[in-house]
Design a protein that fits this description.
There is one protein chain. By secondary structure, this protein is an alpha/beta fold. It has three domains: 41-167 and 254-260, 3-Layer(aba) Sandwich (D-Maltodextrin-Binding Protein, domain 2), CATH 3.40.190; 170-251, 3-Layer(aba) Sandwich (D-Maltodextrin-Binding Protein, domain 2), CATH 3.40.190.10; 273-357, Alpha-Beta Plaits. Helix content is 43%, strand content 25%. The protein is built from 13 helices and 15 strands. The chain has helices spanning 3-38, 45-58, 65-83, 97-106, 118-126, 146-154, 187-192, 194-200, 212-221, 231-237, 284-287, 291-300, 334-346, and strands at residues 87-91, 111-115, 132-139, 143-144, 158-166, 170-172, 182-185, 205-208, 225-229, 241-243, 253-260, 273-280, 306-313, 321-328, 349-357. The strands form three sheets. Strands 1, 2, 3, 4, 5 and 11 form a six-stranded mixed beta sheet that branches. Strands 8-7-9-6-10 form a five-stranded mixed beta sheet. The chain has a four-stranded antiparallel beta sheet with strand order 13-14-12-15, sandwiched between helices. A hairpin with a 3-residue loop joins strand 3 and strand 4 (143-144). Helix 2 runs antiparallel to helix 3 (65-83). It catalyses: prephenate + H(+) = 3-phenylpyruvate + CO2 + H2O; chorismate = prephenate. Catalyzes the Claisen rearrangement of chorismate to prephenate and the decarboxylation/dehydration of prephenate to phenylpyruvate. Residues 280-357 form the ACT domain.
Length: 360
């Protein structure tokens, strides 16, 4: 086949794909009507993950699975927008890592609202001003975002999905490296690049900003200032990248939660779920040296895998802690229900924070 013949074949395939996509979106719009008439949720995390899983299983290449997921993410984003306009709150301003994570999950066809703080995101979703919120929860290098964990104790919002985003940090400035005297960024971003900054800018002052995107805005205006942020922020504000990939660890990844007012159902097919809880031992923690082990046993005895446990001060009295726990399985699983019943016999607080698909 010559070049023109190949192009004609591609054009024909494009016409077919557009027609099929529009047919798919019409069906999605019909589903949206049924959901609204029955009071159901438009965005269903477990269904989304099931669709993506089936698509990947059918992929025989040469397209890579990650590229196929990205394409279908946008198809589903367009479908959601037809079913019902969604507003997603995220930690702003525009072009932050949280904004990027939100777009990775919900695509470009929904509406986004930048919020100043994580607390603002919780409030917006609780009041129904936003449909869902996207918050950073932990980083593979620097650990958990403590403000986010603390907000779950009092909030009735549920975790409905999670997102993993590889984070690449760049040094962004209008000044050359040798002229940089101040480096702005979010505290976690500065920490994730600590060793690089010590080696290359040992005399520069490190200054915390409210977000990586805000840091780029400051660096754009101040001579001798730089920001640590992602490429999206550099492009959005038109500031050059002086040095790329300055994070201390190559596999720097941040985990984000999607929070909503209603919980997610079980994943279908071969899908797996994760569940998060916050648990308090109350007075047992100090009175009983084996209290923490006793808290873990109901899960272990039933083969429920514990993937994370982290303590946070309750702020109610000295040396009183909440334990944030991630386990495999869904809240509605029979074994999970049995384990929770055991826990509730001796723990004053066992709060379910949500169940969500294990895949990102």
């Amino acid at each position: 086949m010559d070049l023109n013949a190949i192009r004609e074949k591609i054009d024909a395939l494009d016409r077919e794909m557009v027609a099929v996509l529009n047919e798919r979106l019409k069906l999605a719009a019909e589903i949206g009507k049924l959901k609204r008439s029955q009071g159901g949720q438009i965005y269903v995390a477990e269904r989304e993950e099931a669709v993506l899983r089936k698509v990947i299983e059918q992929n025989q290449g040469p397209i890579k699975n990650e590229a196929l997921r990205a394409i279908y993410r946008e198809i589903m984003s367009a479908a959601i927008a037809l079913e019902k306009p969604l507003l997603i709150a995220y930690l702003g301003p525009e072009a932050t890592n949280t904004h990027q994570a939100a777009m990775k999950k919900f695509g470009a066809s929904v509406d986004y609202h930048a919020m100043a703080t994580i607390s603002d995101i919780f409030t917006a979703v609780e009041k129904g001003e936003s449909d869902y919120g996207v918050i950073p929860i932990e980083n593979s290098t620097e650990g958990s975002v403590r403000d986010a964990l603390d907000l779950f104790v009092e909030s009735d919002l549920k975790i409905v999905a999670q997102i993993y985003l590889e984070i690449s940090h760049h040094l962004i400035s209008n000044s050359p490296l040798e002229a940089i005297e101040r480096v702005y960024s979010k505290d976690q971003a500065l920490a994730q690049c600590r060793h690089w900054l010590q080696r290359h800018l040992p005399h520069a002052q490190l200054i915390e900003a409210s977000s990586t995107a805000r840091a780029v805005q400051i660096a754009k205006e101040e001579p001798g200032a730089a920001a640590v942020a992602g490429e999206l922020a550099a492009t959005a504000h038109g500031v050059p990248i002086v040095a790329k990939n300055i994070q201390d660890k190559a596999d720097n990844t941040t985990r984000f939660f999607v929070v909503g007012r209603k919980p997610s159902g079980r994943s279908t097919g071969d899908g797996k779920d994760m569940t998060s809880f916050v648990i308090s031992l109350g007075d047992q923690a100090s009175a009983n040296p084996g209290a923490l082990l006793k808290m873990l046993m109901p899960m272990a005895e039933r083969g429920i895998n514990l993937s994370k446990i982290e303590s946070r001060p309750s702020k109610k009295r000295p040396w009183d802690y909440y334990f944030f726990v991630d386990v495999t399985g869904h809240f509605e699983d029979p074994k999970m229900k049995e384990a929770l019943a055991d826990l509730q016999r001796f723990c004053p607080l066992v709060k379910w924070l949500g169940s969500y698909p294990a895949m990102s």
